[in-house]
Write a structure and sequence with these properties.
53 residues; alpha+beta; 3-stranded antiparallel β-sheet; 21% strand
């Protein structure tokens, strides 16, 4: 299984706050609480969709 979170970071689609508690969706200019289980799924989906997979 590919690590879409890592790919999203490498492609500058997402980033994280210094303490890794907040995920930042770069192109949407939105920041969310990464401790919310739904945000990990959303981060993977955004990364996989935007890299053409």
């Amino acid at each position: 299984m590919k690590d879409y979170i890592k790919i999203g970071i490498e492609q500058n689609l997402i980033s994280f706050s210094e303490d890794m508690s907040r995920i930042i969706y770069v192109f949407q200019k939105k920041e969310r609480n990464y401790n919310n289980p739904e945000e990990e799924s959303t981060g993977r989906n955004i990364s996989s969709t935007n890299i053409g997979l």
